[in-house]
Amino acid sequence: MTSQTHHPLNKMLLKLGIVILIGLLALAFQNISPPPPKLCGTPDGPPVTGPRVILRDGRHLAYNEYGVSRHTANYKIVFVHGFNSGRFDASVYHPELFEELKIYMVTFDRPGHGESDPDPKRTIKSLALDIEELADKLELGSKFYVIGYSMGQQGSWGSLKYIPHRLKGVALIAPVVNYWWSSFPTNVSFEAYKLQPLQDQWAVGVSHYVPWLVYWWNTQKWFPCSSVIAGKPNFSASDWDLVAKFRAEGSPAAATAQKDYVRQQGLAESIFRDMRVGFGKWEFDPMEIRNPFPNNEGSVHLWHGDEDGLVPVSLQRYVAKKLPWIHYHELPGVGHLLPNYDGKKEAILRSLLLGED
């Protein structure tokens, strides 16, 4: 394996040196430091419209509930939303199945999103502790399920690492991968990295190597920012078919309102902080996590489509190979919007809760 100092991705340092120089020059024209967030419930901030819990450090975490009452539920799930999303993400909500199996699910705005207070010190560990504390505040019991979608993998992997004793099972759906996890062979991570559009290679590289430039990079007008932030993600054709369907059935005004809600406290502590945490230097390598269910008292599932344009399937195959205790479900002809394909919500829930494959 190539040493860390000779990792091909580190060649980005040479190019990013140019970016740093540009960023420094930009100081003469604009401030690269983001404005302070507008906290919900403060005189200059957005209003508080939904329930929130107060966490160990005084932060508020906003949440939303789906399904049957948590006091009568057979299954209790904490759902962790993806990038540029929030507590109203109903990606795995299946009304009929929730009623049939008596499922309760709580979703929450991750820190800095929607109506949850920002956490400038956010890490993978702090998010896992937020999940644990939310579950305790809502009295979900000693153990519960966690489902993370896309960038919500921060909560899923974090839970597996830091609070495995609280878990009944975990599902990772199209989880975003950090190209710099140490277990990835150089050729695997680099080849996958180069599959991304050039603008995303740069955006992710900036997030990893010069995180203090993330705000400037994604707000300046000289170079294209992340395609996802720009609203033109590298979706597969089948994903775009689903997007067209959503737009035909939904209201453009509602979609805009949801986007505004997610970002209402400011970009820096919501989607830009997400990039810094997701693609930054992790405190651990997920591929070194031990099986939290050695006696099959629970299970972990990883779902991925082979046409996912945002997260190359080659990376998930490698993760699944390194962690053979994970139940890996690779779906042909499916893109990043995996839960929205016909039958997939039910399949995800039944495999996690009932052990049906």
Structural class comes to: alpha/beta
Binned, the helix content reads 25-40%
Please give the count of helices: 12
Q: Secondary-structure element sequence?
A: HEEEHEHEHEHHHHHHEHEH
Per CATH, the architecture is 3-Layer(aba) Sandwich
User: How many individual β-strands?
Assistant: 8
Global Rg: 20 Å
Tally of individual domains: 1
CATH homologous superfamily identity: Alpha/Beta hydrolase fold, catalytic domain
Question: How would you describe the overall organization of this protein?
Answer:
The chain has 357 residues and is of the alpha/beta class. The chain has a single domain, classed as Rossmann fold. It is 35% helix and 14% strand. The chain has helices at residues 12-26, 95-101, 124-137, 153-162, 186-194, 198-209, 214-217, 237-249, 252-263, 271-279, 313-322, 344-354; strands spanning 52-54, 60-67, 75-80, 103-108, 144-149, 167-173, 299-305, 326-331. Strands 1-2-4-3-5-6-7-8 form an eight-stranded mixed sheet, sandwiched between helices. It is globular, with a radius of gyration of 20 Å. The relative contact order is 0.15. The mean pLDDT is 91.
